[in-house]
Amino acid sequence: MRKTERYPVEGANALWQIYKTVSFWKVLKNVIIIEIARYMPFLRVKNWMYRTFLCMKVGDKTAFAYKVLVDIMFPEKISVGKNCVIGYNTTILAHEYLIDEYRIGEVVIGDEVMVGANTTILPGVVIGDRAVVAAGSVVHKDVPAGSFAGGNPLQIIREAKERPEQTEQ
């Protein structure tokens, strides 16, 4: 089960009430930064923008591919470890708006994680260190460290297996 905080609303659907949830100015600033970053060819600059303006936690040497879309309302709830690859056109969400409620959840992506292109990561999930998520997947549950997962609905295709420590040569 995903770990999200639930907030009930009354009257119009939760998305219609967006600016009761988050400031218009915060959303506007985030949209501008995210749109610039999506097309930014310099990975260091992109990561700096995410850290500085969106308060995301982004590890060293992590690469967000072209057109990755991070959450525009709560990007500070996203944490990505070091030396990760987040594939082309992937979406990372930290919120979801429904009719009668909205939900907010942390997204934690471990170290050395590979996320394939066109993947959607939903709020409240943890992707463990050295996990691989296949392209086109919808990550709606946690992915254990070292495993290979994919599909919609997401399935763990291969569990992590014991392997000897890698030695540098």
From TrEMBL:
GO terms for molecular function: transferase activity. The keyword Signal does not apply. InterPro entries: Hexapep, Hexapep_transf_CS, Trans_hexapeptide_repeat, Trimer_LpxA-like_sf. PROSITE patterns: HEXAPEP_TRANSFERASES. Signal peptide: none annotated. SUPFAM superfamilies: Trimeric LpxA-like enzymes. Keywords: Repeat, Transferase. CDD domains: LbH_MAT_like (cd04647). This is Acetyltransferase. It comes from Weizmannia acidilactici.
